[in-house]
Design goal:
It contains seven helices and 16 strands. By secondary structure, it is α+β, with helices and mostly antiparallel strands. The strands form two sheets. The chain has an eight-stranded antiparallel barrel. It starts with a helix and ends with a strand.
Length: 307
């Protein structure tokens, strides 16, 4: 009789908890492997995916790793509380749909040593970056050739933006290209998505941008993909900022650093070196030198603008 009571109690408990006694459904989606996608229809991205980790490299941020879980055919990335629906089309293609964007992933057949990359071995990363840039260039060029209408519409929009009623000049491509000549930089490419030129130096990247409509700005950013110098080493970053400012003609920044007239302002991802305005009447504003950390990468950014 006691046994029957226990059985009845167990059945009632299961009914009251609406089926919570059922075994948890196993995930039917497996996306492990090496993949690529065309993000925003024109930007090439590669991802190395293990059972719980998404690893990827980007010239803007260096290497990035995101832990994830799949639950009820949706992927959840822990770092930024991101959730997206997964649709597995076949073993070589899946879609990731979120409130922000829809991305189509395709399996990448390659001889990349993924284990060495995931272990952050420098030689493996350098070799990967060279191949990645070649694949990125080829995929994006192929996309533009296969989608001439989309490319033409993009060019038309850019022309309309340039012809709009601006206080200054937002023809970023012409202005920045001319700036490259002044800086005697000859080998570079144009990033039409972010309206900037890109200079590759080994595994590092430098980005230049000049122009603007309401504000006319000059900015240079360098991403150091294998730099692990702690941000706490202010002496190192002061000297790195000085060399950076001198190299690209940001004279007021260089003079301020040499004179010791910089203030350090910390934020969530790094800090700023702020300098005083040398002439409040000239409508020229110095936004500072930004030092940012991204896993194994560091970024130096320097800029000023006319108002």
């Amino acid at each position: 009789m006691r046994t029957n009571h226990l059985i009845i109690f167990f059945i009632l408990a299961c009914l009251l908890t609406a089926g919570s006694c059922k075994p948890e459904k196993e995930n039917s989606i497996d996306i492990t492997g090496t993949w690529y996608c065309m993000f925003r229809d024109s930007v090439y991205v590669e991802s190395i995916i293990t059972k719980d980790l998404i690893w990827q490299y980007d010239d803007n941020f260096g290497t990035q790793s995101f832990h994830y879980i799949i639950r009820n055919d949706s992927v959840f990335i822990e770092q930024n509380d991101f959730a997206a629906k997964l649709i597995l089309k076949n073993t070589n293609e899946f879609d990731m749909l979120s409130q922000h964007t829809n991305s189509n992933y395709y399996r990448l057949v390659t001889d990349i040593d993924t284990s060495a990359l995931l272990q952050d071995k420098e030689d493996a990363l350098d070799a990967y970056i060279n191949g990645w840039r070649e694949r990125k260039f080829n995929r994006e060029e192929d996309y533009r050739k296969r989608n001439p209408k989309s490319t033409a519409e993009s060019d038309k929009i850019q022309e309309e933006e340039i012809e709009s009623d601006c206080v200054f000049n937002n023809d970023y491509k012409s202005l920045t290209t001319e700036w490259m000549k002044e800086l005697r930089v000859q080998t570079y490419s144009w990033d039409d998505v972010n309206k900037r030129t890109v200079l590759i130096e080994g595994a590092d990247s430098i980005y230049f941008r000049q122009g603007g409509c309401a504000h006319f700005g000059f900015s240079v950013e360098q991403v150091l993909t294998s730099n692990t110098v702690p941000l706490a080493d202010s002496t190192y970053w002061i000297q790195a900022s000085l060399k950076f400012a001198e190299r690209f003609g940001f004279d007021h920044y260089a003079q301020s650093i040499k004179a010791g007239k910089v203030n350090i302002v910390h934020n969530d991802t790094g800090f700023w070196f702020e300098v005083d305005d040398d002439d409040p009447e000239d409508n020229l504003f110095y936004t500072g030198i930004e030092i940012t950390a991204f896993d194994r990468a560091r970024k130096i950014g320097i800029s000023f603008y006319y108002n």
